[in-house]
Backbone:
C-alpha cells in the first residue's frame, strides 16, 4: 500500500514557480528521500504535503484525497511535519513544546507515556526539560523538533533537512533516530541537500531539480548513478 | 501620610482599570502583531452592556459581570472574524486602519442609540469604611478585587493551560502552530474573546466608579491604556499589568500633589522617558530576540 501519492504537484509564489508538476509515490513503512540543491523546491513540496501552502495537483494520503484539508487537520490524520529551521517555540520550555505536540490527543495516559519515552530517547532533552527551548543548541533543537512531532503519534513523518547546520556527530545521531522511528513502522519523507547520507538510509528516492523530478529510483540506485555522483556527491 | 495612603488606594483602583484594558491590547498584539484600535470602544460597550442588562434584570453583580464579559468578548471575536481575519496577510497598516474604522462604527452605533450621556445606577449599595484617617468604599474594594481576580485567572490560563501554551506559541511563530494540529484561528478567536471580555469588565467597573457613561468614553481611556501596554512592553502580559498600574499611579499622584491640569503632561512625559531608555517597554522583548 502507498502512504502517499503525489500527482502533478505545483507550488507557486506569485510569479515564481517553485514546484512544476511533480509526481511520486511513497510506500507504507519506507524511507523516501527527495534530494536537490538550494532552491530546488524541496521545502515547498513538503509544505504543500502538510497543507501549509496552497498548491495545484492532487495529494492522496492513505488512499484518501486530502487537498481540501487544512494543515492542523492533516496532523489528526497522522501526517506530521518537522519544518525547515525546526520551528521550535523558543519562548516555551522544552516540556511545553513537547506537550503542544500532543494537542490533538485525548488519551492522557498515552501522552504521559509518550512524553516519558521521548525524554528517555533524548536524554539531553530530559536534562533541559524546564529550560526555555530557545536556549538549546541547534542539535538539541532538532531533537526537540523530532520528539515533538512524534508526540502526535504520526503514521507518516515529513522531515525537512534534519542535518542542516549540525556537526557530523550530531548528524549521525539524528539519522540513527530517523531509522529507529522508521523501524517502528512510521513512513518517512526525508528532504535533504546532504544526498550521501539521505540516499544511504532511503528505500526509494527522487532528485528534484529546479522544481521538476529529474531522476527516481531506489536509494542504492541513485547512490551509484553517475549523474547523481557528479552533481550531488562530489565524485 | 494618610493623604498619601488615600491616594495610593485611588491609584490602585485607577491602575486596575488601565491594566485590564491594556491586557487586551497586549494579547491581541501577541498573536497578530497588530494594534486593535477598536479596543477602547469595546471598553465603552462593556459599560453600556452593563447598563442595558441592569436596567432590565436586577441580577447580582457577579452575574452581570459575566454577561458583560461574554457580550463584549463575542463582539471582539466577531470583529476579528469579520474585519481582521481577511487582512491577516495584508500590510499591518491596513489592519490597523480597519481597527480604527471598526472603533468608529461601534462608537457611532452606540451614539445613535444613546445620543446623550447616561447615568449609571449603582449595582449594589456602596458603604464606606474609615480606618484611621483612611476611607475605603466597598466599591473601591470591589473594583480592585474583581480586577485582581481576573488578572490572576488570566495569568493561570496563560501559564498553565494548553490554550495558554498555544497562545504563547503563536506569539513566537504562528506559521508553525498548525503543524502541531493546533487550530490557529480558533486560538486567535479565543484570544480576542478574552481580551475584549477583560476590556468590557473594565468598562463596567469604570461605569460604577464614574457613573455617567457616553459613547465617547472609550476614546481617551483606550488611548491611555494603549500607552500603558506599550510602556509595559506590548505583547507582554505582565508588562501590560505593570504599565497599567504605573500609569494609574502617576496620574493619581500628579493630581494629588500638583495642579490637576498637569496630570496628562506629567504622566505622558514620564512614560516617554521610560520608552527612551526601554524602547520595547519595561518587560517587552526586541522582536529579533525571537530567532
Ligand atoms: N515565501 C517565498 N516567497 C517567494 N519565493 C519563495 C518563497 N519560498 C521559496 N521561494 C522560492 O521557491 C524556490 C524553491 O524554494 P524551496 O525553499 O522550496 O527550495 P529548497 O529546495 O527547500 O531549498 P533549500 O535547500 O535552500 O532549503 C526558490 O527559488 C525560492 O527562492
Ligand atoms: Mg528547503
Residues:
Amino acid at each position: 500500500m502507498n502512504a502517499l501519492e503525489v500527482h502533478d504537484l505545483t507550488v507557486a509564489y506569485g510569479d515564481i514557480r517553485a514546484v512544476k508538476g511533480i509526481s511520486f509515490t511513497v510506500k507504507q513503512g519506507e524511507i523516501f528521500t527527495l534530494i536537490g540543491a538550494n532552491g530546488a523546491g524541496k521545502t515547498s513540496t513538503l509544505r504543500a504535503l502538510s497543507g501549509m501552502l496552497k498548491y495545484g495537483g492532487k495529494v492522496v494520503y492513505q488512499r484518501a484525497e486530502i487537498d481540501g484539508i487544512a494543515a492542523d487537520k492533516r496532523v489528526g490524520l497522522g501526517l506530521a511535519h518537522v519544518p525547515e529551521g525546526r520551528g521550535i517555540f523558543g519562548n516555551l520550555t522544552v516540556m511545553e513544546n513537547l506537550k503542544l505536540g500532543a494537542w490533538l490527543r485525548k488519551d492522557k495516559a498515552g501522552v504521559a507515556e509518550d512524553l516519558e519515552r521521548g525524554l528517555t530517547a533524548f536524554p539531553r532533552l530530559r536534562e533541559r526539560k524546564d529550560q526555555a527551548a530557545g536556549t538549546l543548541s541547534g542539535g538539541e533543537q532538532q531533537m526537540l523538533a523530532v520528539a515533538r512531532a512524534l508526540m502526535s503519534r504520526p503514521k507518516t513523518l515529513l522531515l525537512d533537512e534534519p542535518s542542516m547546520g549540525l556537526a557530523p556527530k550530531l548528524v549521525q545521531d539524528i539519522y540513527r533516530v530517523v531509522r529507529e522511528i522508521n523501524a517502528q513502522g512510521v513512513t518517512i519523507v526525508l528532504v535533504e541537500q546532504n544526498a550521501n547520507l539521505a540516499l544511504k538510509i532511503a528505500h526509494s528516492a527522487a532528485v528534484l531539480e529546479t522544481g521538476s523530478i529529474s531522476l527516481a529510483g531506489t536509494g542504492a540506485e541513485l547512490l551509484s548513478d553517475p549523474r547523481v555522483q557528479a552533481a550531488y556527491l562530489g565524485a | 501620610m494618610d493623604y498619601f495612603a488615600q491616594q495610593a488606594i485611588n491609584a490602585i483602583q485607577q491602575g486596575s482599570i488601565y491594566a485590564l484594558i491594556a491586557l487586551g491590547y497586549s494579547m491581541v498584539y501577541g498573536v497578530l502583531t497588530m494594534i486593535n484600535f477598536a479596543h477602547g470602544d469595546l471598553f465603552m460597550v462593556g459599560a453600556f452592556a452593563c447598563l442595558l442588562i441592569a436596567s432590565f434584570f436586577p441580577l447580582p453583580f457577579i452575574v452581570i459581570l459575566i454577561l458583560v464579559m461574554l457580550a463584549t468578548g463575542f463582539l471582539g471575536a466577531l470583529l476579528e472574524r469579520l474585519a481582521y481575519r481577511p487582512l491577516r496577510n495584508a500590510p499591518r497598516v491596513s489592519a490597523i486602519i480597519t481597527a480604527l474604522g471598526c472603533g468608529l462604527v461601534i462608537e457611532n452605533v452606540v451614539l445613535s442609540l444613546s445620543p446623550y450621556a447616561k447615568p449609571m445606577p449603582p449595582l449594589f449599595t456602596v458603604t464606606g469604611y474609615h480606618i484611621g484617617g483612611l476611607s475605603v468604599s466597598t466599591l473601591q474594594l470591589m473594583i480592585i478585587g474583581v480586577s485582581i481576580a481576573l488578572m490572576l485567572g488570566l495569568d493561570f490560563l496563560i501559564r498553565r493551560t494548553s490554550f495558554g501554551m498555544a497562545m504563547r506559541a503563536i506569539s513566537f511563530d504562528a506559521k508553525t502552530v498548525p503543524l502541531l494540529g493546533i487550530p490557529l484561528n480558533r486560538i486567535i478567536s479565543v484570544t480576542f474573546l478574552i481580551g475584549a471580555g477583560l476590556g468590557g469588565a473594565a468598562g463596567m467597573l469604570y461605569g460604577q466608579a464614574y457613573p455617567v457613561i457616553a459613547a465617547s468614553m472609550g476614546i481617551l481611556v483606550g488611548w491611555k491604556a494603549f500607552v500603558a501596554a506599550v510602556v509595559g512592553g506590548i505583547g507582554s502580559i505582565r508588562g501590560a499589568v505593570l504599565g497599567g498600574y504605573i500609569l494609574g499611579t502617576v496620574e493619581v499622584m500628579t493630581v494629588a500633589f500638583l495642579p490637576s491640569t498637569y496630570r496628562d503632561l506629567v504622566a505622558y512625559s514620564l512614560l516617554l522617558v521610560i520608552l527612551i531608555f526601554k524602547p520595547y517597554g519595561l518587560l517587552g522583548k526586541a522582536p529579533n530576540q525571537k530567532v
